[in-house]
Amino acid sequence: MTTLHIDDASPLVLYTLRLADNALVLGHRLSEWTGHAPMLEEDIALANVALDLIGQSRALYTYAGEAEGEGRDEDAFAYLRDAEGFRNVLLVEQPNGDFAVTIMRQFLYSAFMLPFWRKLMGSADERLAAIAAKAEKEAAYHLRHSAEWVIRLGDGTEESHERITDALADLWMFTGELFEMDDADRALVERGIAVDVSALRPEWERTVDEIFAEAGLTRPADVWMQTGGRGGRHSEHLGFLLADLQFLQRAYPGASW
Amino acid sequence: MAEKKIPLWEVFIRSRNGMSHRHVGSVHAADAEMALQAARDVYTRRGEGLSVWVVPSTEIIASDPDDKGMLFEPTGSKIYRHPTFYEIPEEVGNM
Amino acid sequence: MYTQALNNLDIDTTGDDAALEARFQARVDDEQRIEPNDWMPEAYRKTLVRQIAQHAHSEIVGMLPEGNWITRAPSLRRKAALLAKVQDEGGHGLYLYAAAETLGKSREEMVEELLSGKAKYSSIFNYPTLTWADIGAIGWLVDGAAIMNQIPLCRCSYGPYSRAMIRVCKEESFHQRQGYELMLSLAKGTPEQKEMAQDALNRWWWPSLMMFGPPDGESIHSGKSMAWKIKRFSNDDLRQKFIDATVPQAHFLGLELPDPDLKFNEETGHWEVGEIDWEEFQQVVAGNGPCNRQRIKQRRTAHENGAWVREAATAYADKRRARKAAAAAAEAKEAA
Fold it and tell me: Distance (Å, rounded) from C-alpha B75 to C-alpha B53?
């Protein structure tokens, strides 16, 4: 079986896959915490977020497959593309690190996704609008949960403040990509299907500033933003993640599970 | 290493069927917001609830089991509080 | 969710008031539930704390072998199901710790005992999960055995334990089905998949039978637990029930049970198994299983790595309380 490429995907398929890949990769990352979280309650909480995200990815992959019309199902997309075929933003594939990194990654992402899903709920594409309506509620909780932790880690102990500050420094360079748009996106925005993400920046910054103020954190300035994930050029980490994720499908090609 | 204990909270959930909040269990959390989130994450994973209360376990005032007789037995003899105490002829119908 | 019959309890019944004890026993005999503030014999309390804590530890350690495969689950459907299942086990550990806490032992103390190696947990989790089929075998056999153990616990005389178990059993109902369905897809799959399923059954069958604990004859304190209605069936009875239920399920899968002596007794209507290797069981319980050290190390690492997070949460709560108090004081001063 050959590796699936998505270079010639239609704008709608590509758009849907990017959203699906974000959700799957971040969901997968969070699932790595299971059994290892700082306390039992948090173990369960992180698994809930992971399950929400994996659920989102499944709905989106299924729709992408239908829109593409070539008979690919959710697993064909998730398990049979190599890293360059994945179009998630770099932020979500960053390793879990310590709990501070995981929480900061979740906060920066959720603060973006909540207004994103809200806008997508009004999409001219009914399927995307329906997926967004469900995801919006999930994202609202993810944001609440991660923001509460950002505040506690920022305003907790000296050590936690140091760790969350460090996490912010690790991750901030990946936030620029959230607001990128290419021709495929713009074409869909014009048709009322996609969200103009550049318009989401003020709200995202407001959320970030508000929570950082409570947490005693400062938004980093003048950081050179990393880019590439949306175009299939990833960090070193995604390959390892996929080696894990895809192992059985690769070792036993064609088997069904 | 003696770690500081994280407080225990009692969790009450109001289920979908419109019943009162019911005690479902406990969680550990450092403060009220975290307790509320933990309660949601732990006790509503299968769509069980529409509303959650959390109460610090130390704030629950419980009756003493030794007072059980004094508190609860006197009502046992007040059978006239129950509808079956009164006899109504069958012809009258349901009442 | 997993219990293992407990037989190594040192029960000290001296010094309790005979009249109180008689009243207590009468309530138990009458199928009334004992509640946290009720008088109870010290030995009853100790037995329960130990059993519930072991039960909780089993759930928590049990997350690890299955957790191994969450990131490698072969389809998104399987991934979501496994993640939900392992998460449930965490939840069950949490309910059980809370039930034990009603008897006056803190979660911190119980966790400390687990991490120091003082507390026991179900030894089944000291076996490794080597292939994806192990996830099926655990769901089908280990959860299946656990359910046999746990359903009677829903009627346990201690109220909080019984209520926790009712919740647990309700949530667990999908766990065994999940495992059996997984085995079914392997058994009906490619030759490699079927081989994988058979290999998993070979490795998990005997340890699953051991989950019910030693044979009744060697069960030291079962009698007291039975009288207290903590335990309602003997190890061997539950084991036999499990065997009778499971053998036909294995046959339906087209798999072979790794027991040349297995035979159906027409007279009794029961399946009879060969000799269980109790030496292996004792060794694993004593800490010499393939993964005992690894599992505890993983738990310890998670606990230690999380210490700064728990400290931060507590520090923040303290700070906020202090700020609130200061604000209230300032307000009072202004008003005065």
Answer: 30
Bridge partners (DSSP) of residue B14 are B51
State the average pLDDT over residues A167-179.
98
Q: From its phi and psi, is residue C254 left (phi > 0), alpha (psi between -120 and 50) or beta?
A: left
CA pseudo-torsion sign C87, C93, C98, C99: positive
Q: Is C69 helix (H, G, I), strand (E, B) or coil?
A: coil
- The nearest alpha carbon in chain A to C190 belongs to A255
Assigned domain for A4 exists: no
The Cα C310–Cα C108 span in angstroms is: 12
pLDDT in tens, B29-67: 999 999 999 999 999 998 888 999 999 999 999 888 888
The SS3 assignment for C126 reads helix
Q: Cβ contacts (< 8 Å) between B28 and chain C: which residues?
A: 107
* Predicted pLDDT of residue C218: 78
How many folded domains does chain A comprise?
1
Name the residue in chain C with its Cα closest to that of A24.
Answer: C76
Which residue from A132, A133, A152 is spatially nearest to A144, judged by alpha carbons?
A152
Question: With 90 as the cut, is the pLDDT of residue C141 above it?
Answer: yes
pLDDT digits (tens, 9 = 90+) for A174-228: 999 999 999 999 999 999 999 999 999 999 999 999 999 999 999 999 899 999 9
Residue at A185 is within a domain: yes
CB contact at 8 A, A11 and A184: yes
ipTM metric: 0.96
Is A256 a member of any domain?
Answer: no
Would you say residue A73 lies in a domain? yes
What residue numbers bound the domain in which A70 lies?
Answer: 11-251
Joined tokens for residue C295: 């599992």
Of C71, C305, C309, the CB nearest to A31: C71
CA dihedral angle for residue C117, residue C118, residue C119, residue C124, rounded to 10 degrees: 40
Query: Which residue matches tokens 């490429």?
Result: A5
pLDDT tens per residue across span A38-91: 999 999 999 999 999 999 999 999 999 999 999 999 999 999 999 999 999 999
Q: Which residues pair with B49 in a beta bridge?
A: B15
- What stretches of chain C show up as alpha helix (H) in DSSP? 18-29, 42-67, 76-101, 107-115, 133-137, 143-153, 159-187, 191-210, 222-227, 235-253, 278-283, 292-335
Mutate to test the interface with B, among C17, C27, C95 (most CBs of B within 10 A): C95
